[in-house]
Amino acid sequence: MSETPERLLPHPLTGQLFASPVPPGTGWPEDPAAPDTPVAHTARQVRELAATAQDVDQLNALCSVCSACERLVEWREDVAERKRASFAGEPYWGRPVPSYGDPHARFAVVGLAPAANGGNRTGRMFTGDRSGDWVYAALHRAGYAEHETVSTAGDGQALHGVRMIAPVRCAPPANKPTPEEKATCSGWFDREIELLPELRGMLALGGIAWQTVLAATARMGWEVPRPRPKFGHGAVAWLRTPDGRDIRLVGCYHVSQRNTFTGLLTEQMLDDALALAAAPVE
């Protein structure tokens, strides 16, 4: 981080002044943490703290102040200080981005990591970039989101029956977390899946999300097909939890601009994959 004096900027919705990155418990909309929320500094501490969470709200608070990956901490905070020119007049969240949505979700949308000038700026997953616009619009068309569009945390959006989860909670350089960073963050991911007892389906946005889900559920003792199913758009894999729930995992091309601009992923394709992931399980 730089040695320059802290500069406070107004939140784009509330006008309240914040530093970048935003200190926990200072009034940012939807901030789950408090000033005294325990901070994980190592992969071991991530797993130890995650195990103490009794619900997804507690887990969100803990993961939103995590500092276990030095490279990611430096990157997310550097982006928050330097800012993209078009957002130079507003504060950046600049912390790990918590999961978002219904704590009693029956299906989950699994991505990869927050965008540097998207979730890392707004403080909410899939909010503030064009990829997120596609996801929320699809959820709205299917009746799972209150609003078709989003802007930043605190804009009135709400999800019903669905939860958004990222295997990596901090924005990584070049959108590429290292294997070690993914392994460290897996403590938060695994515990979140454990805290969603009504889960029946998962939509994996991209091959990394698909592989992450298969690896996580194997670690957690779920029944996972062997050999592990290959990712593909519309691919389906059935997983079984230790308590006997069958979970449908559905693959979907990622909502990256490269995929949506070229037509590799269309709105109809996304809608169909989402509907399959959310369909009732007998």
TrEMBL record:
<comment type="similarity">
    <text>Belongs to the uracil-DNA glycosylase (UDG) superfamily. Type 5 (UDGb) family.</text>
</comment>
<keyword id="KW-0479">Metal-binding</keyword>
<dbReference type="InterPro" id="IPR051536">
    <property type="entry name" value="UDG_Type-4/5"/>
</dbReference>
<feature type="domain" description="Uracil-DNA glycosylase-like">
    <location>
        <begin position="98"/>
        <end position="274"/>
    </location>
</feature>
<dbReference type="InterPro" id="IPR005122">
    <property type="entry name" value="Uracil-DNA_glycosylase-like"/>
</dbReference>
<protein>
    <recommendedName>
        <fullName>Type-5 uracil-DNA glycosylase</fullName>
    </recommendedName>
</protein>
<keyword id="KW-0408">Iron</keyword>
<keyword id="KW-0378">Hydrolase</keyword>
<keyword id="KW-0234">DNA repair</keyword>
<keyword id="KW-0227">DNA damage</keyword>
<dbReference type="Pfam" id="PF03167">
    <property type="entry name" value="UDG"/>
</dbReference>
<dbReference type="InterPro" id="IPR044147">
    <property type="entry name" value="UdgB-like"/>
</dbReference>
<keyword id="KW-0411">Iron-sulfur</keyword>
<dbReference type="InterPro" id="IPR036895">
    <property type="entry name" value="Uracil-DNA_glycosylase-like_sf"/>
</dbReference>
<keyword id="KW-0004">4Fe-4S</keyword>
